Amino acid sequence: MPFLTSTAYAATSQFRGDIGAMIVDSDPVVKLVLLVLFLFSIFSWAIIIQKWFRLSRARKRAQRILDSLGNSGSMVDILDTVDSTGDCPVARLFHDAREELTKITAKSQTVPLSMLDNVENRIASSNRQQTMDLSHGLGFLASISNASPFIGLFGTVWGIMDSFREIGLKGSANLATVAPGISEALIATAAGLFVAIPAVLFYNYFTGVIAHASSQMDTFQIDFMNWIRRGLIHGEQ
Fold first, then answer.
1. Structure confidence by residue, pLDDT tens digits, 12-41
2. Domain coordinates in residue numbering, the chain
3. Other CB atoms within 10 A of residue 84 CB
4. What distance in Å separates the CA atoms of residue 6 and residue 166, rounded to the nearest whole number?
5. What is the pLDDT of residue 77?
6. Cα separation of 72 and 99, whole Å?
7. Nearest one of 137, 134, 140, 135 to 58, comparing CA atoms
8. What are the strands, taking DSSP E only, across the chain?
9. In degrees, to the nearest 5, what angle opens at C-alpha 88 toward C-alphas 86 and 91?
10. Contact 209, 131 (CB under 8 A)
11. What span, in angstroms and rounded, lies between the C-alpha atoms of 109 and 134?
12. Among 47, 71, 196, 223, which has the minimal tally of Cβ within 10 Å of its Cβ?
């Protein structure tokens, strides 16, 4: 097959030393590996940038809502704070809880204590949904971080096999014959690590940030339910 034909001799005879030239002169299979890694890198950085801005914004806005919850005297005060803060997972939890309260009070102006479980369950369900939403894309980032070094290693092994095949055909094993092909093959391993290292670092970082965001939502659930219970006990709601 022409696609799998050895290019080691061409790489050896035209060896120019710089990385760009080695990529151009590399075996077609190695080039395919580099293309796959390049696409992985684009997807990886797209996820990283999107997650970075979204999680940073969500964490800051959630903390603002939590800080004001204890000082709010009425549902209107909390709503004003949530609306002024902007969209975030904790804000969505509040809107879901408020919607459930509206359904409960549709036929009466009070919230029976026995119906508070409905509100708490609604917040808990929304909490799980928001956590899954925040985690969306991290699985692919983890796959990239795990697979990229092996994909790069495959390209390197293939390139080295091609170089040794050329040595066998030429009957020469001097350094000038071996070095160019191996150098080109090792670029695939370097590319695999270049893709994998940022992916694994940011995956671990985002996992910690999402755990913190989940903790903020748990805190909101506890504080909001306590706020409602205090209001019912004191006849303020």
1. 445 555 666 667 767 788 888 889 999 999
2. 38-149+193-233
3. 11
4. 7
5. 84
6. 19
7. 134
8. none
9. 80
10. no
11. 36
12. 71
Instruction: Quote the CA–CA distance of 231 and 227 in Å, as a whole number.
Output: 6
- Residue 131's pLDDT is what? 92
119 or 206: which leads in pLDDT: 206
Residue 98: which residues within 8 A CB-CB, separation 6 or more? 75, 79
Q: Say which range, 101-110, 124-133, 172-181, has the weakest mean pLDDT.
A: 172-181
- What is the structure's pLDDT at 172? 62
Q: How confident is the model at residue 199 (pLDDT cuts 50, 70, 90)?
A: very high
Pairwise CA distance, residues 40 & 204, whole Å: 18
The DSSP letter of residue 74 is S
Residues 6+ apart with CB under 8 A from 101: 75, 111, 119, 228
Angle CA 86–92–96, to nearest 5: 140
Contacts of 63 (CB under 8 A, 6+ apart): 216
- Rounded to the nearest 10 degrees, the angle between the axes of helix 175-233 and helix 28-69 is 20
Distances (CA, A) of 31 to 62, 104, 156, 173, 225: 46, 63, 11, 25, 58
CA–CA separation, 96 and 123 (whole Å): 7
> C-alpha dihedral over 53, 54, 58, 61, to 10 degrees?
50
- Tell me which amino acid residue 112 is: P
User: CA 37, CA 87: separation in Å to the nearest integer?
Assistant: 35
Q: State pLDDT tens for residues 203-212.
A: 999 999 999 9
